[in-house]
UniProtKB/TrEMBL annotation:
Belongs to the sigma-70 factor family. ECF subfamily. GO terms for molecular function: DNA binding; sigma factor activity. Pfam families: Sigma70_r2 (PF04542), Sigma70_r4_2 (PF08281). Signal peptide: none annotated. It comes from Wocania arenilitoris. This is Sigma-70 family RNA polymerase sigma factor.
Amino acid sequence: MSDKLENLFLNVIEQNQQKLFRICSVYSKNSEDAKDLLQEVLINIWKSLPSFKSKSSIETWVYRITLNTCLRFRSNDIKKQKRFISTDDLSDFGIQMETENEDQKEKLVQLRNCLNILNKGDKAIISLYLEKLPYKEISNITGLTENNVAVKIKRIKKKLLNCINKTL
């Protein structure tokens, strides 16, 4: 592979590795599995890089590969997987990530449990939303219209809030 592609790969990974890891975490039962899944994602990005055609931003393309890899991983073991989320902003769900408050910790546990009941499409959309991607980019990654993304996010948030409140 050329030095140009290698540099592009290294730059993209350096800028997006934490985001990719958090997405992988949604589809993994623990941190070690998330790391393994991230390695699969990186391998798939590396293998596919020569075919990148610049029809979208490199970040959108990388997120699409990440989601596709994660969805394949999940479908291989859908019944056994317990995914978790690690993100800086869960304020839409009334949750502070860094907290000593036991109520907040319980809400985070409940959110993680509630994420497990989402279908793969909803999980993909909410994981991108939690990464603070704009609706337009989520639309490009998922192939849905921006309006459809907005409606789905609203419904997913409502479903998650109901699930959290029901279990508390």
